[in-house]
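Data availability excerpt. The first of two example chains:
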Amino acid sequence: ARAEIDAAVIAALEPPPPLELGDGVTLHFTYCQGDFDVEANAWGALPFRVVIGRVEGAPLVLPPRRGGGPRPPLAAGAKLAVDLDLDALNAMLYEVWRTGYLDKQLAAAGLDTRFNTDPTVTEYLSLRISRPVLALPPVLSVNGDGLRLSADARVTIADGAMSTVGRVWGAIDLAVRGPEVLEPIPADLAQLELACAQGTQLRPCYADLVAAVRSRRDDFHAPLTAVTQLLLAQLANRRLADASVPGELVIERVVPYLSVQSDTAMLRLQAEASVVQ
């Protein structure tokens, strides 16, 4: 009987709607294997997954799998929440990287312009850099009580008529304590390394430049924190409706919570929502 009830409920409900990010990029969701979970007279939960594509010419490039994370009880009075474990978060990062959306956001952040127009750079250095382009999808992992976002990017370093392709490895710490409200999600530069190609070898290069950038980590806090708000901004102020169901679900605000357990984590996006006719 429970199996039949579960099937009926799942048939009547849908996974989270597609998330339009702009520039023609949409995140899609569908059901995955797992039971429909019910707490009597309290809440019901549906398992879903992120739909991802493959990279043309590199089909083996895929997000990592770390397993499910902790799922604390739903807060009293909560109407709607989406739990994203590291696998789901990394799948979303992979998809927005694969479609070029992240590179566009990096370009909009203007990190290269900040460097090239810095008074110290313009006065004392002949180096200029291009905007960074992510060579691989960024990956989230647990770092203490928070999360670390690691990335591998390429940047062209021009020095007069000469140019070099640099490989940049960086990490951003989401320095939080879980579980607690994260608003906004604080982000800071944690690691930065630069290597240049010399034939078939990679060697550390421009050590003084890298050290100077590391010493100005505080300058990165505001733009990096702003990037972490992109997802929340996309989710808020939305109206979800279906022609077969009367009324609309209006999402007014999304509040993130983080729960960390060993080497796994769960990010809960709890929506402040109401149903209107």
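And the second chain:
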Amino acid sequence: MSNKKNSSQETHLSWWQLSLVGIGCIIGTGFFLGSSLGIRMAGPSILIAFIIAAFATYVVYDALAKMTAKDPAEGSFRSYAKKAFGRWAGFSSGWVYWSSEMLIMGSQMTALALFSRFWFPRVPLWAFAAGYAVLGILVVLMGASGFDRLENLFAVIKVAAIIMFILLAALACMGWLHHHGTDPRPHIPDRLMPHGFMGLWSSFIYALYGFGGVEMMGLMAIRLKDKNDAPKAGRMMLILLVTIYLLSIGLAVTMVSWNEFTDKESPFVIALKDYHVPFFPHVFNGALIIAGFSTMSASLFSVTSMMSTLAKEGDAPSFFSKKTRRNIPVRALILTISGMAVSVIMGLLMPRMIYEYITTAAGLMLIYNWLFILFASKKLLELTFWGTLKNFLGIILIVLAVIGTVLHKGSRPGLFISFLFLLVIGSVIFLLRKKWNKEKGA
């Protein structure tokens, strides 16, 4: 009886609510900060990278949404990988996702602590990181409905911050804002690709990071009132994201030269730094904190759910599958908190460059799960010619993005570390294979 009640309470989202939750999960520091790195590599052609990345993201989400509509599964992409290719695929997909999100959450909390010191420079980083961790745990303990409401609010705030930049940048380009420098005119880029095609190629992975988190929508799509609305929710979300992404980045590269962008500041703060807008750095720093906390909370929520389903299906100790009356997997949450604490300590104690390599690897591991989604959809769905072509193009684009990291020396170590994680998980699968075969025979 109680299980039925919990299930009915979980299934309540309208398609537009899922779109908002998706925006809340996706817009984060990957866009607000990571886009600077992409601009440094590709110059104005980063806009091309974002358009292609949007198409690849659409293909991935469309495949995931159709599998959800056909067969709603609590484990989402992990369950579909298992159904398509067997237990090894479900095991590896789930643990790759859990590991990557653990590392990314640590980097998000470290970044949140750094943003907060903009206002409180004397407070130690660990105090801020611990505070945000506690707040994130409270969000998960609020349950699914509380999480949805907060993510909807965060989505509105983040979109409002980007729209505020677009309006201010438009006013600056029209000469209506006071300029401190010598040349207030819009900067006309002299070259579309300052580092050639290779620069555009190596920047593609950072454009994909701007859409990272789309897989979380699959975990939440099972709570739609009508599962067939899942593709529509994703389309509307991506249309809004692509529009504000292209407008904001297009204005940023128009206002200052591409080589002025750095990985230390958001491209939108850099674009307005010579204009008399004293409130903007404070407002945007607040938006960065909300963006980072929002994606961190979404990661915490999704990996806790993922661990619970892994345990339920025997791919993690069954101890972690138990849930409370409010449908919260407390034991899985405790494990996630422990992993998060280790990740934060690594972020605070490790040399910055080494930790950046590790988090780059974690970002790549998320992208590997996108490949699982596309390969699984080929096997589980009856695809039309256009669907097959779209699926093929999505796979090619993701593979090209991963290969592109070899071209950039800052991304290359992260690629090799991601392979090391895959090797470890693959070794565990090899050791468990005999046990699985025995269970299957029994």
